């Protein structure tokens, strides 16, 4: 009988994230019989998730050992894998990250992972993520941390630079790029294979193929794209025309990187109402599973598209599966990006862990865009870890989304003040 790992899921009380992880766990039959510990500071939410998990476990006869706790130090002993997705007052503070820079003339489009708001988003999440890593170092030092927490690149840089924790970051945003290819070419998404390299939310398709035949789809895409509705994915296609490769993240997240994105896409920001409707729909599913109104069957237990359990299964059972995008230290994978960068690349998972596929070089224009962001990422991480106010200002002034020194100063003053309760690493001036 193969080894059955212990998997700790921190942030499991989140309805959308928690249910996604449960679906993936129960879909991965080779891991049935393993141990799963659900962790969240919201006891009511994590208890509900555990009740749903237990119902699924019983109905499927999956034999998982399932428990929950609000104390991660109780969960972590003997953990083989730790999955992490957390946020500090996510919606409330994201709105501040977006609205305050807007007030000072920053026409950004999301304000989550890039731009002035992302400086503070990063610094809010750094203390708790690094605290969790300290616990992993002490309690289960051989565990692999699988991080979903944003801003992905920045937090992975901090983990890699300031801890000894083995970590990989995951993001599903490539789905947006595959959707663009599918829409324009008319080929179903499940038949499209993409190889893309870059940094999180800023990867670039170096290869697009038909899974069935191996045919290179770039010529077909280029031909069909010329006459396709010019309003569709307007920013992604503008960047494609100028830089030669199609970016993968879709217009919304792509727009975070370009100060002129608002000229082509909406600058209204994230649709929080839509998100809340989606969250409530997932809560209804959880309630339905718990009370028995929703059948636990193959229709419910479909993979979420996240790859945490693919990685776990791949390392336990040496699957040699290709994971289309992981965030790992560069170490020469992309030769014209800094070694210490966290790059998002395809990787093969096996009993030896994750091995990124080497690309060589990105085109110069694309590497220049990535390098600028990598420098900002490092400035933000150093600022947030060390409580260095001057580096916060440097990060703001270096970010291409900020065209004004006066705007940078005002954003700094106001966002530092509203984030005061979340930034214990900064002492008073």
TrEMBL record:
Record-marked site positions (Increases basicity of active site Tyr): 112
GO molecular function: hydrolase activity, hydrolyzing O-glycosyl compounds; metal ion binding; oxidoreductase activity, acting on the CH-OH group of donors, NAD or NADP as acceptor
All residue ranges annotated as the Glycosyl hydrolase family 4 C-terminal domain in the record: 197-401
Cofactor note: Binds 1 NAD(+) per subunit.
Residues that, per the record, bind Mn(2+): 171, 201
Entry keyword set: Carbohydrate metabolism, Cobalt, Glycosidase, Hydrolase, Iron, Manganese, Metal-binding, NAD, Nickel
Keyword S-adenosyl-L-methionine: no
Pfam families xref list: Glyco_hydro_4, Glyco_hydro_4C
Residues the record lists as binding substrate: 150
Cofactor: NAD(+); Mn(2+)
InterPro entries, per database record: GH4_Enzyme_sf, Glyco_hydro_4, Glyco_hydro_4_C, Lactate_DH/Glyco_Ohase_4_C, NAD(P)-bd_dom_sf
Gene3D superfamilies: AglA-like glucosidase
Domain of life of the organism encoding this protein: Bacteria
Biological processes, Gene Ontology terms: carbohydrate metabolic process
UniProt record similarity statement: Belongs to the glycosyl hydrolase 4 family.
Name listed for the protein in its UniProt record: Alpha-galactosidase
